[in-house]
Amino acid sequence: MDFLLGVDGGGTGCRAAIATASGEIVGRGKSGPANIRTDLTGARDNIVAAARQAAAAAGLDPGVIDRLRAILGLAGANVGDYGRQLENILPFAKSRVVSDALIALEGAVGDGGDGAIAIVGTGTAYLIRRGGVEHPLGGWGFQVGDQGAGSRVGREALEEALLAYDRVRPASPLSDAILASFGNDPNAIVEFSLGAKPGDFGNFAPKVLEYAAKGDVIAGEILARAVAAIEASLSALGVDQDTPLSLLGGLSQFYAENLSEPFRTLIRRPRTDALGGAVSMAVRTFGIME
Question: Is residue 34 within 8 Å of residue 100, measured between CB atoms?
Answer without folding.
Answer: no
